[in-house]
Design goal:
Elements (H helix, E strand, L loop, with lengths): L19 H25 L9 H17 L7 H15 L2 H21 L7 H19 L8 H14 L5 H22 L1 H6 L4 H18 L37 E8 L6 H11 E9 L7 E8 L2 H9 L3 E9 L3 H5 L10 E9 L2 H9 L3 E4 L6 H11 L1 E7 L6 H11 L5 E4 L5 H10 L6 H13 L2 E7 L4 E3 L2 E3 L4 E5 L2 E6 L2 H13 L5 E6 L7 H12 L4 E6 L7 E5 L1
Parallel strand pairs: 5-6, 5-7, 7-8, 14-15
Antiparallel strand pairs: 1-3, 1-4, 2-3, 9-12, 9-16, 10-11, 12-13, 14-16
Helix pairs in contact: 1-2, 1-3, 1-9, 2-3, 2-4, 3-4, 4-5, 5-6, 6-7, 6-9, 7-9, 10-11, 14-15, 16-17, 18-19
Length: 564
């Protein structure tokens, strides 16, 4: 299927049928995408209950769907392939998020059945109709739908797809994904539980992976999304449940158990009764049906409760119950200690970056770092306090030359504890720090992640352009006040009459020993047109070298340069 080729459809144009192979590729890409951000999604999981498993549940559910998809016959039609994926997800769904994900696939499968001609259906109609049906099914499945969750993103995605039904498949998929990313940012403002934790919706982050994966299989590329800082310890120590000995209130969101099971043989009229019974026993009630089962409708049930036995018995009263899964939320160890220096951290992982400039602060926050500003200087106590505020079990710190090494020893002594490991990477500039953040992987083991970040920083050669504040004798010769100095490390190797000349000469010198990527962080005093002229020069003089620039806004440098 050509997503954006010369035959891009216009209004009213009949589009080519969607290839079942593309659907198989999409399911596998979803698995890869969810695997990459599983830890990140787990850390965001504070609603409906902070159990740190949304990423793991979505990955498990999508893996089941992809496996079922791959097991279909090579000549299977689109409707057969998508129905197999939906059945696989429904049968193996885990958690609230997994059940809702299964409804996305069920919606697509139902849309394929409705719109197919000889087993085939155009992509735009499948995506628009399927997302619409998925939004309806997922919303009906939840007892108390809330704005600011994945349900909101589903509704908006369906509306976007419907508005662009006559666009090319690639354009439609990109619009849905970019709109979803924007809507995800707004979830923090829409849901009080997310606002208190300062995070976006975990299920919504997972749904963004799904729509981004469709863009990637259609066009070959997808947008780079920011890393989100979570509030929990990924897959480890969730927070927010009753401590030992506290009463469990069925009217609160603090439940001890997650209960899931499948019901067969129930009539549809009994499901509202079951839902009401489960609502009285707990919260986060989700019940979804799978009408594709030829032996009768099958329902998947999910509830958080303090009475797991009663929740299972409620299902037995309406049908044959199977695939019972009961999970106990273990939080006593986390809640037992009131000494902040003697309790487990709230997050598994954190990164602290010292930066200078408003643009730099925004850039590194988008990359997932907790930012400490050094615009007006920085002392060891302030950096140590910032590390403690991250409240993570493993913290990677990049001071970027803002403090001398002996001060960092003091910071380490103040910040480390029995439950907190602090690792300082030897970054001396923000460009090296940015290279380290590019390879940061919250799903990797802490030591392996820190090693990869250190290796990336070390492989980035750093340079800068500054304005001479006084006459001096340098390795490049004598300079006067106001001259532009190109520095590699701490050595002045270029003297130029203007910013463009100094920057161009510095980049040429740095690339003389090789390089594939030039990254420039522009300071507050950079002149208009300098970045554009430098990019044109790199393109002309160094073919094949990629050039990336950011407005970082540091006050003491015209620009920083990193070469990898």
């Amino acid at each position: 299927m050509n997503a954006d080729g010369p035959n891009t459809p216009g209004p009213g144009t009949r589009q080519a049928p969607m290839d079942p192979g593309l659907l198989r590729d999409w399911s596998q890409e979803c698995v890869r995408g969810l695997t990459a951000v599983r830890g990140e999604i787990n850390d965001l999981n504070v609603f409906p209950i902070p159990d740190s498993d949304t990423g793991s549940n979505m990955l498990h559910t999508m893996t089941a769907a992809a496996t079922a998809c791959a097991d279909t016959a090579p000549d299977a039609t689109l409707t057969e392939v998508i129905r197999a994926a939906a059945d696989g997800a429904t049968g193996q769904a885990r958690g609230n998020s997994g059940i809702i994900l299964s409804q996305v696939l069920v919606g697509l499968a139902d849309a394929a059945d409705i719109n197919a001609v000889d087993g085939a259906v155009p992509f735009n109609r499948l995506w628009a109709s399927g997302l619409g049906l998925a939004a309806l099914a997922a919303t009906r499945a939840v007892s108390e739908p809330r704005d600011g969750t994945v349900l909101t993103l589903l509704r908006q995605a369906a509306a976007t797809a419907a508005d662009l039904i006559d666009a090319s498949p690639g354009d439609l998929a990109r619009a849905v994904a970019d709109g979803c990313a924007d809507d995800l940012e707004r979830t923090t403002e829409q849901l009080p539980e997310l606002a208190r934790a300062g995070v976006v919706d975990a299920g919504g982050r997972g749904f963004l992976v799904l729509v981004d994966s469709m863009v990637k299989v259609l066009t070959g590329v997808s947008a780079r999304r920011r890393r989100y800082q979570g509030a929990l310890a990924g897959g480890g120590d969730p927070i927010g449940h009753p401590a030992a000995g506290e009463a469990c209130d069925a009217n609160s969101s603090e439940m001890d158990f997650e209960v899931m099971y499948t019901i067969e043989g129930a009539v549809a009229e009994q499901i509202p009764v079951l839902r009401a019974r489960l609502d009285g026993l707990g919260d986060a009630v989700v019940i979804v049906g799978d009408s594709s089962n030829t032996a009768g409708e099958r329902f998947s049930v999910h509830v958080h409760t303090c009475e797991p036995g009663d929740a299972v018995e409620a299902g037995i009263e309406v049908g044959r119950v199977s695939a019972i899964r009961i999970t106990c939320f273990v939080l006593d160890a986390h809640r037992a200690s009131h000494d902040p220096d003697d309790r487990p951290a709230a997050r598994a992982r954190g990164v602290v970056a010292v930066v200078d400039g408003d643009g730099a602060a925004e850039l590194f926050e988008q990359e997932g770092a907790s930012v400490v500003r050094s615009d007006d200087g920085l002392d060891a106590a302030a950096l140590a306090q910032a590390i403690l505020a991250v409240d993570a079990a493993h913290v990677v710190v990049m001071a970027n030359g803002a403090l001398p090494a002996q001060d960092l020893v003091t910071v380490a002594a103040d910040a480390r504890s029995r439950h907190r490991t602090v690792v300082f990477l030897p970054t001396l500039s923000m460009v090296q720090c940015l290279s380290a953040m590019a390879v940061h992987d919250i799903a990797a083991a802490p030591d392996a992640d820190a090693y990869a970040m250190a290796e990336a920083a070390a492989s980035t050669r750093r340079g800068s352009v500054v304005t001479a504040s006084e006459p001096a004798l340098t390795l490049a010769g004598a300079c006067d006040t106001g001259d532009l100095l190109g520095m590699i490390g701490v050595d002045v190797l270029v003297i130029g009459p203007g910013q463009s000349e100094a920057a161009t000469a510095l980049v040429d010198l740095m690339l003389s020993t090789g390089g594939e990527l030039v990254t420039v962080l522009a300071g507050a005093d950079i002149a208009d047109g300098v970045l554009e002229r430098l990019e044109r020069h790199v393109s002309a003089a160094h073919p094949g070298v990629e050039f990336v620039a950011y407005q970082s806004g540091q006050a003491d440098e015209v620009l920083q340069v990193g070469v990898e």
